[in-house]
Amino acid sequence: MIHPDSGRITVARYLDADKHDRVVLNVQADLVNGGSNHTQVVILIEDHNDNTPRFPIDLVEITISENQSVHDPFYIVHATDKDKRKNGAISYSIISSHPPCPVMVQPLTGQLQLTDSLDFEENKDYRIRIKAQDHGIPPRSTNMTLVLHVSDFNDNAPIFETKRYEAEVPENSPLMTLVLKVKARDEDSRENGRISYRITNGSSAFGIDEKTGVIYVNENIDREVRSVYDITVTAQDQGKPPLSSSIPVRIHISDVNDNAPSCTSVATMVVPADSAPTTTVGTIVITDPDNGPNGTVIYRTIVITDPDNGSNGTVIYRSQQSHQLFVVKSNEISNHFTVMADGKLFISSLPQSPPPWALSLILSDKEGRQKHLSIRILEPSSAIPTEPVRLSPLLPIGSKVASLGSKTKKNRTSFYSLKNESSFFELDQATGDIYLIRKIRDMQDRRISLYYNQIDATTSELEGKQIDFEIGNGSVEAPYFAEDFMRVTVPEDAIIGTVIATLNATGSGPLAS
Questions:
Q1: What's residue 267's pLDDT?
Q2: CA 398 → CA 86, 311, 388, 426, 470, distances in Å?
Q3: How far is 183 from 160, CA to CA, in rounded Å?
Q4: How confident is the model over 194-210, as a mean pLDDT?
Q5: How many helices (H) and strands (E) does the chain have?
Q6: Distance between CA atoms of 161 and 197, rounded to whole angstroms?
Q7: Which end of the chain is more exposed for a tag (fewer CB within 10 A), N or C?
Q8: CATH 2.60.40.60: does it fit domain 59-151?
Q9: Do β-strands 228-237 and 244-254 pair in parallel, antiparallel, or remain unpaired?
Q10: Distances from the Cα of 364 to the Cαs of 293, 343, 358, 369, 465, in angstroms?
Q11: Would the pLDDT of 269 be above 70?
Q12: Sorting pLDDT into bands at 50, 70 and 90, what band is 113?
C-alpha cells in the first residue's frame, strides 16, 4: 500500500516469490489545484529458501537383471523444489546402502548406474537411501528409499559333486536295477537352476532318470560280452539359453557264475596195452568264461574201473604235473627252508628261535602272475592221535575210504594236498575225498599214515594234518545174499516202522559178522 501524503509504499500482506517474483504498481500523483501525473513502480520480490525438495514417492521398488551393464543408467530419481534459482536447484547423493551396492547417482541428473557387476547368487536385494538437497542458504533436503531387486540371469552352469563316477553292478541284473546316482548343483534360481540329466555318450545298456540322476540297468548285461562300460552323463539347466556340463561314468560289470565249464578239446584217447602205470594218456582242457573264482576250473580225479567191479581193475587219473614256481620270500626264518621243484617245503636247518615260524611263499605261474601265501609252522602237537580209519581188505578199487572236508566250517572253501604220496590212495584236492586205487591186500603194512595240507582259499591259511588207516585181518571171501532177487508187496496204509522184509547174508572168516 502507498501513503497518500508521503508516498511511502509498504507491504500490506504476505508475499510469496514462489508465486509472483515481481509486482508492478501504477502510481498517480494529484495536485490540489487539480493537476495530476502517472508513473509505474516495479517491485522485485527476492526469493527466500522456504521450500524443501520433494520426491513424488518416498519408497520405490525396481528390478534389474544381474547382467545389467556397468555405467549404463538404469533408473532416474527426480525431486522438485518450489523455490527459485539456486534455492530451487537440486543435487542428488546416496546416503546409505544395505548391503553395500555397487551403484552411484549422478548429482545433477539423478541417473543411477552401476560401478561394478551384480551377482544374484551373492545378493538378491539392496535397500538404498538417496538424498535430494537444494542450494539454498541454509540448504534444505529430503530423502527417499530405493529397493533394488536383482533378477537372476543364467550365468552358472551345473557343477557335478565329483570329477568322475565309478560303480559296479552284477551281470544278469534285472532291468531297472539301480547302479548309482549322479548329482549336480546350479547356483542359479528357478528355471535357470533347474537341472535335468541325460546320457550323451555311451551304451543303451544303461538309462538315467532325468530328474533324479539315478542310473539304472536298461538292457541285459553280460560280463563275458563286455566287462566295462564308459558313458558320459550331461547335466543341463532350463535357462535360455541353457548351460550344461558333462562327466565320465565308468561302470564295471561284476561276474556271476552263470557259465558252466566247457571242454573244447575232447578227443578219442588211445592207450597202448603195455602202458606203464602213471603214463599220461592225454590232456583235457576246460575253460570257463566267468571271472575270478567263478571261472576257476578244478579238475577232480576221474576213477574208471573194469566191468568186474574193480576186482582186477586199474585206475586212470589225472596227472599231477604243475606249472607253478614256488619261492620263499626272504626273511631271517626263510634261510632255513627250501622249496623243491615239485613244491615240497623242506627244512634245511633249525632256526635259533623256537616255533611257531612264519613264512611267506610267492607262487608264480608261467605267465608271470604272482600270489602270496602265508604259512605258519607250528610245534608238533602233543594231542592224543585220532582214531585210525579201519578198512576192510575186501574194499574194491575206486571206493571212497575217507573225506577230509570239514562239515563244521560253513561258507569256507578248502583245498587239500598230500605231503607223502601213496600208491594205494588218491586225494581229490577239491573235495578232500580219498579213493582207493590199488587192492589193499597187496599192502605189506597193516597201518599207513597220510600227511596232508589243508589250505583255506579265503584266508590262504595252511594247516598240516594227518589221517591214519588200519587194515583189518579177515577172509578174502566176500559174503553173499541167500537170494539174488526179492519182491516185496507193501500195503499203501502201512504205518511207519512196519517191517516189510528181512535180508539174510552169509560168509566165512573173522570178518563174516
A1: 56
A2: 127, 10, 20, 9, 18
A3: 6
A4: 92
A5: 0, 34
A6: 14
A7: C
A8: yes
A9: antiparallel
A10: 18, 12, 20, 5, 25
A11: no
A12: very high
- Cα–Cα distance between 502 and 500 in angstroms, integer? 7
Per the CB < 8 A criterion, the answer to whether 316 and 278 are in contact is no
Q: Where are the domains of the chain?
A: 59-151, 159-254, 298-476
Q: What is the largest CA-CA distance in the chain?
A: 194
Q: What distance in Å separates the CA atoms of residue 374 and residue 328, rounded to the nearest whole number?
A: 10
At the second CATH level, the architecture of 298-476 is: Sandwich (2.60)
pTM over 0.85: no
Superfamily designation of domain 159-254: Cadherins (2.60.40.60)
Share of the chain above pLDDT 70, in %: 73
Scanning the structure block, which residue is given the C-alpha cell 599192502?
Answer: 443
Confidence of residue 103 (pLDDT cuts 50, 70, 90): very high
Instruction: Name the one residue in this structure whose C-alpha cell is 508513473.
Output: 39
Distance between CA atoms of residues 468 and 69, nearest Å: 96
What is the rounded distance in angstroms from the CA atom of residue 167 to the CA atom of residue 254?
10
Write the secondary structure of 413-434 as one string of H (helix), E (strand) and C (coil). Answer: CEEEEECCCCCCEEECCCCCEE
Cell reading at 379: 610245534
3-class SS at 199? Answer: strand
CA neighbours closer than 13 Å in the CB half-sphere of residue 220: 4
Environment class of residue 202 by beta-carbon count within 10 Å: exposed (0-12), middle (13-18) or buried (19+)?
middle
Neighbours of 471 (CB within 10 A): 19
Dist CA 429 CA 296 (whole Å)? 14
CB 350 within 8 A of CB 333: no
State residue 160's pLDDT score. 95
146, pLDDT greater than 50:
yes
CB-based burial, 65-94: b 16+ in 10 Å, e otherwise? ebebeeeeeeeebebebbbbeebbbbbbeb
The beta-carbon contacts of 177-181 under 8 Å, at least 24 apart in sequence, are: 177/216, 177/217, 178/214, 178/215, 178/216, 179/206, 179/215, 179/216, 179/217, 179/251, 180/214, 180/215, 180/249, 180/251, 181/212, 181/213, 181/214, 181/215
Pair 178, 216: CB distance under 8 Å: yes
Same fold, 159-254 and 298-476: yes
